[in-house]
Amino acid sequence: MIIKNDQSQVQSYLSDAANYRGFCDAVYFPESEKELTNIVIEANKNKTPITISGNGTGLTGGRVPEGGIVISTEKLNKIIEIDHAEKYAIVQPGVIMQEFQNIIEEQKLYYPPDPTETNCFIGATVATNASGAKTFKYGSTRNFVLALNIITADGDILYLERGKQKIYDYKLNLITQNSREINCIIPAYKMPETKNAAGYFCKRNMDAIDLFIGSEGTLGIITEIKLKLLDKPQNILSSIIFFDKEINALSFITEAREISYLSRKNSASNNIDALALEFFDSNTLSFLKKDYPQIPNYTRTAVWFEQEYTEATYDLLLNKWINLINKHNGDENTAWFAATNSEREKFKEFRHAVSWKVSEYIAQKNLMKVGTDTAVPDNVFIEFYNYAKELAYNSGMEYVAYGHFGNSHLHLNLLPKDNQEYEQAKYIYRLILEKAVSLDGTISAEHGIGKLKREYLLEMYGEKNIIKMARLKKCLDQNLLLGSGNIFDVKYCGFV
Ligand SMILES: Cc1cc2nc3c(=O)[nH]c(=O)nc-3n(C[C@H](O)[C@H](O)[C@H](O)COP(=O)(O)OP(=O)(O)OC[C@H]3O[C@@H](n4cnc5c(N)ncnc54)[C@H](O)[C@@H]3O)c2cc1C
Hints:
alpha+beta; Uridine Diphospho-n-acetylenolpyruvylglucosamine Reductase, domain 3; 33% helix; five-stranded antiparallel sheet; 3 domains; binds flavin-adenine dinucleotide; globular; Uridine Diphospho-n-acetylenolpyruvylglucosamine Reductase, domain 2; eight-stranded antiparallel sheet; Vanillyl-alcohol Oxidase, Chain A, domain 3
């Protein structure tokens, strides 16, 4: 096994795409579950903190160590099995999402919940309950996880299958591979009904596997994942529409969302049923204009939508979309329609470019990301969006607003140019998060909390519930070694 402890060799493991920075003594690269288990057992003897690393595309500092050692999952990168008939895949955590997508698509299979950044590891997408554009139709990663193999904080093994190990009331009772019994209480708080990746997933009588999905490397190390797959759709209609007024783009999304919900309820394949509904404001389009000069000049806003179709439904669905575009004064003539898969990929790249350029911008300024990952209920989304945008606009600072608006999920990124603006940006950011919470929304719909957002989770759930999360962590990780500092400050594990 490779172990790197020369500081010049570990630098790339000390930050992530949010530009959050940390420090560690060494990075370990296990090539088998046995090697990984031995590292954990040894770390327990020495009380050495462990941070698990995926591919470092996270946006909250989750994989960034604050001391101790890092375990990189990059050598655990095998696709163990793809079962076409039963429609599942079993993978190790270090499999790169894009490579997985390429392989299953060749076999006419489909895995919808991929994040915009497909250079991530599948294990990390489970650890953060990641989402992507297609989450509008298919939900987050959680919906596709059938089973997990997990190394516990003391080096034991848990194999959890969906539907098999239940939490009774709020009592978690599990038996490890070494026949050790785990008995813990999970917190009884009310989670937002929006898309959500903030804090531990806890519900009365839920599947135990759901506790570990989205636990951000704090409750166990995921070493094998069984994922549900679907049949690849025949075709996907993909289009970017430009609007000269933002209000038109927002009403277009609202109506497309409502029709989509109705189509799903009625299992109607002959009506609008968006796979993705993504939004770009005028600042975002200006931010992209240098790389995409073909963006029409007068444009104030754009919407990217996708829908699955068959040859039989193509004409009908295209007509319905064009009618909707015209109804909301979208510009049919300047719209981009993907005629081929490679054109469709370019639209995905257009969306990815926004997030990527934001990460690049903050790294150049040597600052950290100040970007919302908030979702609120659909009926208050426009109110929330206007509030957030007005704050950003009035600050005089540069910003871009975009996101998964189908899910009422806003990424508003402030782009401070120096430390003074950075402090101002954090103030505005806090106000936006407070508003999301006051509207029964979440401060993190998909990126998780990591270290960057833990102080805001305190505002979302309150200290009493953070202490309940800390008690649960202590119950599963007595020496507080795994991913400590993610989700909440480790001081809460002393129960404050
Ligand atoms: C341009 C860009 C666009 C993005 N778009 C999206 C998006 O649309 N949706 C979205 O959800 N995210 C998005 N992200 C964030 C990021 O890609 C996801 O959070 C992704 O899941 C992180 O994967 P990673 O391999 O880089 O993980 P890392 O950043 O390395 O780690 C993320 C977290 O997972 C934990 N972890 C990793 N592996 C394991 C394991 N095996 N067991 C236990 N814990 C583990 C780590 O400790 C850490 O807390 C985007 C990021 C960028 C840069």
